[in-house]
Amino acid sequence: MRTIILYVIFIIFVQSVFAEDTAFKRIQLSYGISLEIPSHWEVLSQDAKQNLAAASESMGKNAGVVDDNGKKERLLAVSALPMPSGAKIRLSVTSPPEFTQDNLSATSASELNQLQSEFYAMFNEMMVSNGLKVLEMKPPRIERFNDKLALVLDYTRTDAYGSSPWQVIQYKIPMSDKLIEFTLSYRLSDAIIWKPILENVKRSVQF
């Protein structure tokens, strides 16, 4: 009996510590989108999101990439604490979508492989003005995300503020009237910390 009591106390202690250190909170966004994020991470303000939008637009223009895919709304930008941040969450919506679920279902593996070099070149052109570089880009792939097909772009890039590269995974999910873009990124040197947290965030997304 004493052993059982001690075991129960130990489990309660571990659960309380775990909940305190890794508590998540659900964020409700526009268009019926919601997800859970670590409650202690920094949710960027509207001004900060506008700065990100301006930076992204400038990178595209500097690279000669014209974004004519419609209206893009940056719904959420979250950075891990403490600073300098080692992980980030981004979520945006573009209307109308640039491709459809039918387009993805009809895309072959060879077509995805052909896109690899195109995305690699385009991303490098966009990042050069920021002093960044794509180190490796995996072939784009199609995965299920919330019972929808998603185009997945997976690459590593340099870090402007450190020596460790960053892993970036972007999910492009076409809906009937919009494209949901969900991006997770983290510093690879601390992957053991960030990867499970971001996987939990991904699993929590609802739309």
Topology readout:
Elements lengths: L1 H20 L2 E5 L5 E5 L3 E2 L2 H17 L8 E9 L7 E9 L5 H5 L3 H19 L6 E4 L3 E5 L2 E12 L2 E13 L4 E9 L3 H14 L3
Antiparallel strand pairs: 1-2, 3-4, 4-5, 5-10, 6-8, 7-8, 8-9, 9-10
Structure at a glance:
With 207 residues, this protein is an alpha+beta fold.
Taking the sheet with the most strands, its summary is: 8 strands, antiparallel
Helix-and-strand structural type = alpha+beta
pLDDT < 50 stretches? 2-14
Radius of gyration: 19 Å
Distance between the termini: 48 Å
Shape descriptor reads globular
List the total number of helices.
5
One letter per element, helices H and strands E, the order comes to HEEEHEEHHEEEEEH
Strand content of the residues, in percent? 35-45%
Mean pLDDT: 86
The portion of residues assigned to helices is 25-40%
Q: What's the total count of β strands?
A: 10
Write structural notes for this entry.
With 207 residues, the protein is an alpha+beta fold. The chain is built from five helices and ten strands; from the N terminus they run αβββαββααβββββα. The protein has helices spanning 2-21, 46-62, 101-105, 109-127, 191-204; strands at residues 24-28, 34-38, 42-43, 71-79, 87-95, 134-137, 141-145, 148-159, 162-174, 179-187. A hairpin with a 5-residue loop joins strand 1 (24-28) and strand 2. Mean pLDDT is 86; it is low at 2-14.
